[in-house]
Specification:
elongated; 3 helices; two-stranded antiparallel ribbon; 62 residues; mainly alpha; 71% helix; 2 strands
Length: 62
Amino acid sequence: MDFKEILFQAKAGDEEAVKQIVEMYQPFIIKNALVNGIFDYDLYQDLMIELLKCIRFFNVME
């Protein structure tokens, strides 16, 4: 299954698809939640919320 299909399933409410996307992006989010080499849990949560918003509001522009 390609990413686009997973994204459409996640947008439709498939929790397993959301979990797959979160697992894909988690290393990137963790990397960006480091501030001066220290993990900022609040920033991590904010970034996760933004990822979930991106899934929810994803729209194909054709």
